[in-house]
Amino acid sequence: MRIVMAQRNPLVGDIEGNARAVIDAAREARTLLGAELVVFPELMLTGYPPEDLLLRPSLNRRIDDALASIGAAVEVPVIVGYPAVRNGVRRNAAGVLYPGDEGPRHEYFKQCLPNYRVFDEKRYFQPGNSAMVFEFQGLQLGITICEDIWYAAPAAAAAEAGADAIINLNASPFRASKPEERFEQVASRARETGLPVLYCNMVGGQDELVFDGASFAVDGAGHLCLQGASFEEGLVPVDLSGEGAVLAVRGEVLPVPVGEESMYRALVLAVRDYVNKNGFKGALLGLSGGIDSALTLAVAVDALGPERVEAVMMPFRYTSAMSIEDAEKQARALRVKYRVLPIEPAFNGFMDILAEPFAGLDTDTTEENLQARCRGVLLMALSNKGGSVVLTTGNKSEMAVGYATLYGDMAGGFSVLKDVFKTWVFRVARWRNQKAGTEIIPQRVIDRPPSAELAPDQVDSDSLPDYDELDAILERYVEQDMSAEAVIRAGFDRDVVYRVVRLTDRNEYKRRQSAVGPRVSRRAFGKDRRYPITNGWRPGD
């Protein structure tokens, strides 16, 4: 038997369009690959996560219409994910549709509902409580959905119900090291039950989440037999044959990107889908001559092509000649539209207006922030006029400690590096140059000390600890949820730790007003890590 896992990129809420994608993929899998059964990801018809769209009164009717349209159009049976209301209860479902059917012939309801980090399925769904195994061409096939495979019980129940193989539908978002963790979980279920497991995953960007695909299959001993592509759509054929459904696979096992490559490709996919799915004409950003905007520009060009990207240098009296030269060099190398808009006249105009209220007061960060806000106004004006989204360029280290200006460099629609620590910005930039075999990002940009250039001879280390130290503390405090005292016991200076922790806690108000950005770490700001803005908590144990 040939089963094809259709690794697809749905648009959240576009039920009719997603149904057409199912029909088209099933036809292609049947015609080109000889599929006898085609499997689609979790909640394929709504996209994931549909959030409160699930509460819309017309959603159930649209799902039923979509299922009927699929049954009327396909020439091969399909397994597809969707929300289903049965007896007044909404569930996360997978249905088996045969050609000509108006609705699913068999249905399975997800038993394990994730409700942590970026997941809140218990807000919307009730769990199922039983296995579903159906006969297909002499084999008994069991279905599970995503989180089910991370626990032993659902797979064990399918095995007890007579399954010869398990098909697992997924909308599993990417983060660092996630592919390895998925494989270990799936291999464990295979070894526990002695059954092959087919893992079909969604692909695409959805606001803060990135789905990396990388569908795969293991045999009953937990050995990897097939590995699909990462960060792109694909049709992944799996052949089941032999006594007891021994898994046999024809075709190569594709490599799974890791480290800097996986992070870069996740960022590219996130930008591409955010821009395209939201109907923007392209993207624009302020190109400062620094490492963050340089990496953001490279990602944008790889996501959209140079013809849809615009870079804007907005120099001021503190902008170095080196920054201006490097920004222009990269823009020319990447062949993007490039313009220079000096902010001196705007800044002077604001200062003239503020002369009376500022009289007798010392110059401080107010004037620095005003520079950033002049730049934000210009970028948003260009965005409004041209229809491109502004990509903000701040990184996770800066967002953690508030080293960013509200309505200034934080102004924009999508924050590409929001979940990328500064040390990783350098690593990913070096990887991109190495991959290209040339300076996509000027080497001088990578080598020079980071600076916001908002004051004479300013460098980031004037205001922040060294990034190696800062990121090591933030990784423990933000991503691992270690207390301040636990971080100190790990070998860090007490004063530095408490300073970083206090900055992180008190800048939640800024992060709440920042643009969304792709989650690539174990714990990101936004949907993942949510702290009250107004609170009396004090750091410590």
From TrEMBL:
InterPro entries: C-N_Hydrolase, C-N_Hydrolase_sf, Gln-dep_NAD_synthase, NAD/GMP_synthase, NAD_synthase, Nitrilase/CN_hydratase_CS, Rossmann-like_a/b/a_fold
Catalysed reactions, semicolon-separated: deamido-NAD(+) + L-glutamine + ATP + H2O = L-glutamate + AMP + diphosphate + NAD(+) + H(+)
Residue sites binding deamido-NAD(+) per the record: N369, E398, K510
Keywords linked to the UniProt accession: ATP-binding, Ligase, NAD, Nucleotide-binding
EC numbers: 6.3.5.1
Gene3D superfamilies, per database record: Carbon-nitrogen hydrolase, HUPs
UniProt xrefs under HAMAP family: NadE_glutamine_dep (MF_02090)
Family label: Belongs to the NAD synthetase family.
Family annotation (NCBIfam families): nadE, PRK13981.1
Name this polypeptide is given: Glutamine-dependent NAD(+) synthetase
